[in-house]
């Protein structure tokens, strides 16, 4: 490697840094041979010397050079795990954590008891574990329990270039933990690994590291890739364009694998089907297509069954006595779901069937195309297929989401087809309103994607957009932390006693307004101690940005859910509401419980089928919504009812399929319920809580308490229906006013309260499609508001643009939009919460 010039000669004088032992590894000859081809192998000595001599090292290398699979093995062989302490590797994606632990275990010929993984809901870590792959969220949770991470000898932060929020925070924290461990005489090694992308954010950030860490550049041995731009950029149908491009490549160009980048699971499946139809191949020929799918359904079923068994084991009878054996308390990571449309869209194959030239594209050449899908939530066995050579006499074609960009390297790719798009979740910085959008990738991503074509020989990359469009791409995509609400993160940091969050050594700090919004919300929820209102306004504002955590905040921080939901949990011991709140919160966290039937259908027949399914779902939702005062709990009651009914039926794929529930979501809810039950039991040590998967519906009184609990957690998500006399114009018809937005918002048509239009509601989230829609809606009574949310209320006449008001009783300064609340009555009823 080239050790960069900027590196200071940070040679540690402590010999204790260098373990003396050499631990032999018994690898098979094939593995050994494959390893020797990896560029990083030649650099083992240089890398290990740099690690031995420096507390912090940055390793940059082209994707596929062997960083993730080999560096942990180097460390193991050099004896880093031979005395008390293990190697931890963090990945931003679950799929990488699981797949890499399996690969490394196989390469080293060790069992998964030794080379293990831990992701949010599952893992196979044991007492014998020496190499542990995990998601970055999992490690962040561990920092809370043991700030110095004493269990670890080495921490590897992998895929740092992805700039995931947790990765950024971990790097900030570790920049402090490493010197502290050094001082204690228990040195910790930190290795930051990244694709060859901008690393200056880490290395040239003087707030981060006192001494600039050496940057080792692993020689890429990248073959040249010829980039072909489209003359024109297709507007919408990039999927169809991909199809045509793959057909052309396959017919006209010499052998070599094809890798196609699309944005989501449904698109991936759809393209796979079209390609299999066009280039049939025994098992997945048109006739055999069904076979293949049958086989894959069967595989999926097996996979789910095995997962079910594991999951079933984590839920039952959690009480304090067996707390120690319940292996859950993990970070709170679900990025796969966010970047994949597993959540954004449907799980079902969606054949776009754009009808164009499928016939004429039908190949007359007989060379079959071996088509494989790849996306983050694909069953691991199917994922592993892409690493195996294709059947002889076929050409490999992998249709992938951007997991193939840097997380996984597929061998034998010569042609890359890049649609130039990626699906991302977008948030409004202040309100947290989110939406999934397909957007252009960055130039860095485009180059990464192109690079996949030149791993084994010179290759070609076909970009389905023009070079002018490419020039308009942003250079790098912005770090996640600058793009999303950060209240969950701030609460976690406060729980680590980092009070002046603003001074934290973020590799890239979140925008000041996002930090302020987060602190504001946490103060309103009671998670932070409000600063005394003395001194000048400026000083007060500064004090507000460094509030310490409150006892309630500490309780909230132990729950692996968003702070609003954590507040609900913290309030729910009363009236035996906990089992219900846990279920509601789990359902809200997992999101998208119901299948989406409002999608375009390929045929008349399918349209009828979808309609029927939707009808059934609507009917069931009405039943799940309950009766009497239960109904007012609205969509949250539907969630409760759906989960209860599903568990009652044994949570089978059949029940879910018949009733429009997403099986995968139901399984996640089950796991999260188990996890939250454990968390609650560890906070309320006398609760001895056991959540019955098949719980009874709440009583009428409990339903009312639940609505109050929900209100207390979602206080800033309160909305008041616009009354007839206020109707400004037609666009306000049936609209609601919210505290956070000026625009009209509406109850989503899928809500059971869509027709009821209660005067006051709280909502789980606002999503923007054609209008701003509230989802997860529940009705609240106006008289509860001043009692439960005093800090949000302004008792007085409504003002158009009120100045910040000062309340002498509470000492609070508030900016209000009292128009939302002016119907709130003065009498404070006795509300017990
Ligand atoms: P990097 O982290 O530098 O991107 P990796 O360590 O992930 O590189 O990959 C090194 C090599 O190992 C690649 O050639 C990749 O194809 C191969 N590889 C990774 N996982 C598997 C697997 N499950 N089966 C076969 N080969 C694999
Ligand atoms: Mg890697």
UniProtKB/TrEMBL annotation:
Molecular-function GO term, any one: RNA binding
GO BP terms: maturation of SSU-rRNA from tricistronic rRNA transcript (SSU-rRNA, 5.8S rRNA, LSU-rRNA)
Keywords, ordered alphabetically: ATP-binding, Helicase, Hydrolase, Nucleotide-binding
Renumbered residue ranges of the record's region Disordered: 283-312, 332-365
Single GO cellular component term: nucleolus
Ranges for domain Helicase C-terminal: 245-497
Domain Helicase ATP-binding span(s) in chain numbering: 48-215
Signal peptide feature range: none
Feature: compositional bias, Basic and acidic residues: 291-301
Comp. bias intervals (Acidic residues): 332-362
Keyword Membrane: no
Top-level taxon of origin: Eukaryota
Ranges of Basic residues composition bias in the record: 302-312
Protein name: Activating signal cointegrator 1 complex subunit 3
Native species: Meleagris gallopavo (Wild turkey)
Gene: DHX37
Positions spanned in the full protein: 92 to 924 of 1028
């Amino acid at each position: 490697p080239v050790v960069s010039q900027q590196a200071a000669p940070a040679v540690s004088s402590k010999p204790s840094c260098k373990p003396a032992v050499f631990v032999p590894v018994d690898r098979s000859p094939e593995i050994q041979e494959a390893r020797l081809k990896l560029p990083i192998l030649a650099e083992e000595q240089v890398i290990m010397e740099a690690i031995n001599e420096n507390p912090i090292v940055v390793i940059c290398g082209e994707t596929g050079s062997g960083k993730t699979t080999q560096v942990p093995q180097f460390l193991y062989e050099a004896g880093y795990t031979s005395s008390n302490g293990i190697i931890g590797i963090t990945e931003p994606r679950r799929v990488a954590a699981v797949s890499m632990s399996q690969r490394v275990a196989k390469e080293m010929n060790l069992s998964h008891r030794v080379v293990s993984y831990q992701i949010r809901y599952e893992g196979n870590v044991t007492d014998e574990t020496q190499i542990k792959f995990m998601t970055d969220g999992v490690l962040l949770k561990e920092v809370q329990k043991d700030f110095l991470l004493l269990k670890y000898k080495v921490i590897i932060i992998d895929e740092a270039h992805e700039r995931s929020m947790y990765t950024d925070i971990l790097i900030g924290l570790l920049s402090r933990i490493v010197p502290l461990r050094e001082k204690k005489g228990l040195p910790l090694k930190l290795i930051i690994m990244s694709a060859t992308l901008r690393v200056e954010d880490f290395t040239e950030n003087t707030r981060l590291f006192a001494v600039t860490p050496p940057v080792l550049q692993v020689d890429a041995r990248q073959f040249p890739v010829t980039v072909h731009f489209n003359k024109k950029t297709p507007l919408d149908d990039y999927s169809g364009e991909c199809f045509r491009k793959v057909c052309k490549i396959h017919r006209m160009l010499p052998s070599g694998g094809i890798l196609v980048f699309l944005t989501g699971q449904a698109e991936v499946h759809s393209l796979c089907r079209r390609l299999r139809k066009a280039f049939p191949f025994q098992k997945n020929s048109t006739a055999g297509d069904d076979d293949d799918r049958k086989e894959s359904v069967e595989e999926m079923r097996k996979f789910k069954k095995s997962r079910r068994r594991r999951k079933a084991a984590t839920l039952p009878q959690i009480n304090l006595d067996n707390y120690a054996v319940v292996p859950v308390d993990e970070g709170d990571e679900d990025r796969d779901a966010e970047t994949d449309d597993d959540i954004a869209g449907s799980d079902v194959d969606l054949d776009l069937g754009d009808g164009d030239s499928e016939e004429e594209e039908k190949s007359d050449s007989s060379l079959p195309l071996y088509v494989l899908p790849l996306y983050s939530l694909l069953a691991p066995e199917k994922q592993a297929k892409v690493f195996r050579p294709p059947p002889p006499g076929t050409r490999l074609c992998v249709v992938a989401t951007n997991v193939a960009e840097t997380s996984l390297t597929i061998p034998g790719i010569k042609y890359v087809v890049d649609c130039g798009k990626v699906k991302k979740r977008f948030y409004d910085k202040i309100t947290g309103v989110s939406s999934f959008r397909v957007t252009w990738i960055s130039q860095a991503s485009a180059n990464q994607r192109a690079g996949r074509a030149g791993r084994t020989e010179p290759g070609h990359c076909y970009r389905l957009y023009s070079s002018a469009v490419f020039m308009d791409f942003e250079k790098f995509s912005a770090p996640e932390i600058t793009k999303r609400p950060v209240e969950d993160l701030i609460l976690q940091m406060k729980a680590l006693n980092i009070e002046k969050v603003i001074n934290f050594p973020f590799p890239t700090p979140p925008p000041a307004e996002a930090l302020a919004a987060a602190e504001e919300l946490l103060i309103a929820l009671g998670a932070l101690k409000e600063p005394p209102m003395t001194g000048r306004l400026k000083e007060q504002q500064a004090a507000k940005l460094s509030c310490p955590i409150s006892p309630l905040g500490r309780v909230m921080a132990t729950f692996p859910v968003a702070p609003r939901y954590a507040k609900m949990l913290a309030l729910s011991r009363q009236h035996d509401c906990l089992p219900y709140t846990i279920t509601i919160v789990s359902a809200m966290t997992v999101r998208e419980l119901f299948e989406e039937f409002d999608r375009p259908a390929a045929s008349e027949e399918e349209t009828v089928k979808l309609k029927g399914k939707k009808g059934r779902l609507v009917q069931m939702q009405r039943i799940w919504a309950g009766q009497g005062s239960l109904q007012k709990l609205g969509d949250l009651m539907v969630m409760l009812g759906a989960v209860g009914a599903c568990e009652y039926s044994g949570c089978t794929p059949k029940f879910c399929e018949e009733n429009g529930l997403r099986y995968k979501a139901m399984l996640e809810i089950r796991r999260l319920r188990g996890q939250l039950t454990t968390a609650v039991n560890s906070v309320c040590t006398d609760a001895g809580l056991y959540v019955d998967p098949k719980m009874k519906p709440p009583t009428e009184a409990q339903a009312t308490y639940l609505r109050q609990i929900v209100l207390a957690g979602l206080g800033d998500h309160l909305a008041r229906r616009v009354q007839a006399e206020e109707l400004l114009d037609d666009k306000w018809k049936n609209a609601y006013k919210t505290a956070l937005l000026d625009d009209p918002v509406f109850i989503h048509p899928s809500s059971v309260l869509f027709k009821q239009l209660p005067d006051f509601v709280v909502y789980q989230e606002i999503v923007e499609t054609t209008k701003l829609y509230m989802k997860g809606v529940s009705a609240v009574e106006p008289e509860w508001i001043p009692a439960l949310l005093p800090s949000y209320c302004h008792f007085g006449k409504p003002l158009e643009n009120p100045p910040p008001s000062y309340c002498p009783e509470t000492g609070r300064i508030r900016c209000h939009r009292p128009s939302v609340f002016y119907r709130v009555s003065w009498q404070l009823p006795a509300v017990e919460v």
